[in-house]
Amino acid sequence: MTKKHIHFVTGRLAEHALRAVLNDLAPQVDFEHTVQVMPITVAALMSTDWIARRIAPPDEATHIFLPGYCQGELQCIAAASGLLVERGPTELRQLPDFFGQGAATNEEYGDHDIEIIAEINHAPKLPLASILKVSQQLRADGADVIDLGCIPGQRWSGVGQCVRALCDAGLRVSIDSFDAVEVQQATAAGAELVLSVNSSNRHAAPDWGCEVVAIPDDIATLGGLEATVAWLAARNVPLRIDPILEPIGFGFAASLQRYWRTRQKYPDAEMMMGVGNLTELTDVDSAGVNTLLLAYCQEIGVRSVLTTQVISWAKTSVRECDVARRLAWFSVTNRVPPKRLDARLLMLRDDRIYEQGAAQLERLAEQIKDNNVRIFAENGELHVVGRQFHLAGDDPFPLFEQLLADDPTSISPEHAFYLGYELAKAATALTLGKQYCQDEALDWGLLTRAETSHRERKSAARRDRSS
Q1: SS (H, E, C) the chain
Q2: What are the pLDDT digits (tens) for 97-138?
Q3: For the segment 368-420, what is each residue's pLDDT rounded down to a tens digit?
Q4: Which domains, and CATH codes, for the chain?
Q5: pTM for the full model?
Q6: What's the average model confidence in pLDDT over 55-66?
Q7: Which residue has the higher pLDDT, 440 or 107?
């Protein structure tokens, strides 16, 4: 079998860095390679039709590999060369990840067996249309069941109508209430789970015809839980047990022990944990908290979690739990750490930082022939690199003043706005320890918002003017 031979295409500025990456990467992935340096300074300015007129792969080449920023259809290059053509990442430092030498990959990743119940707090205060909209978004974020949180002491006359509307929309529904009449109306309309049941209301549970969550009468001692579980089981009421997670300062560690003891006492019982009791009541970003709690649930066999998204720092808890349950399932099932599997919960900092290095930045300044400015954030500083200059510092304002001092007429208002925007992103990346790539959105994990690059905007504007 002929060994894979990849013909890489690049511009003059990136040649040295590309060859250095390929010298390490090619033996790891096991491919031969050649590099064609096109007669252009910046590879990102190449178009596929321009490349097609100049491509010259060796006879042994099997593939052609283009920089990610290269615009246009690949077919013209394939037709000109007779080879398979692929567009790679926008940053050549991402090539190891692109070729599978970065984050671990496994076909099994993505499975899970923990159910997410997403509570809509104070549902009776919301219009039905709002509840439907929120519920559909929660399902899209990963929720399996929508929990309608009722208001103690205020019976909700519209609960049946609301449950019926959600069920008609294809949603699974649970009802969070101790009011037996309220619950009866909800279950008659299609609610499949009741939160929660103890000695005060268990007498009504056999009439509801659905699963219930059994909780203790006294949380600290689990008092009354055994009696409630036995009472429900004797009447064939399906149940799951929730020993109740308590906030930090109110018995958090002890409550984790109670979950463990409950699992030992009821090894085959379904269990639930209300993770919102911690995420909503702790001044910390919720992603890490959700991940640790879902991991605990995975290890001891708690197969459902209840979460809310009320407080500002927990607004994406459902999405976080959805990722966390997949990480936990894969880790526990395969007995491997949940590392290099899924970077979506790495929102504050990135999993790795790629740097050009001082020597490459100086080389870049010497080789640049055009008037474009390149911005980098590495080694604790912002770097502004252009033709025959390399400015560095940790404050964007003095850097921009230095840039203007050289030739203020060369920077238009539009370009000044662009540079300010990019420097702000670079300063943010430097502050948090994130990867900064000019013209690309910062990676905020599952919170990342796609960003149209300045280059793409300018290209689109040119196309509009010419059409």
Answers
A1: CCCCEEEEEECCCCHHHHHHHHHHHHHHHCCEEEEEECCCCCHHHCEHHHHHCCCCCCCCCCEEEECCCCECCCHHHHHHHCCEEEECCCCHHHHHHHCCCCCCCCCCCCCCCCEEEEEECCHHHCCHHHHHHHHHHHHHHCCCEEEEECECCECCCCHHHHHHHHHHCCCCEEEECCCHHHHHHHHHCCCCEEEEECCCCHHHHHHHCCEEEECCCECCCCECHHHHHHHHHHCCCCEEECCCCCCCCCCHHHHHHHHHHHHHHCCCCEEEEECHHHHCCCCCCHHHHHHHHHHHHHHHCCCEEEECCCCHHHCCHHHHHHHHHHHHHHHHHHCCCCCCCCHHHCCCCCCCCCCCCHHHHHHHHHHCCCCCCEEEEECCEEEEEECCEEEEECCHHHHHHHHHHHCHHHCCHHHHHHHHHHHHHHHHHHHHCCCCCCCCCCCCHHHCCCCCCHHHHHHHHHHHHHC
A2: 788 765 444 567 899 999 999 999 999 999 999 999 999 999
A3: 877 788 999 998 999 999 888 899 999 999 999 998 887 666 788 888 999 99
A4: 5-98 (3.40.50), 115-341 (3.20.20.20), 358-455 (no CATH)
A5: 0.81
A6: 94
A7: 440
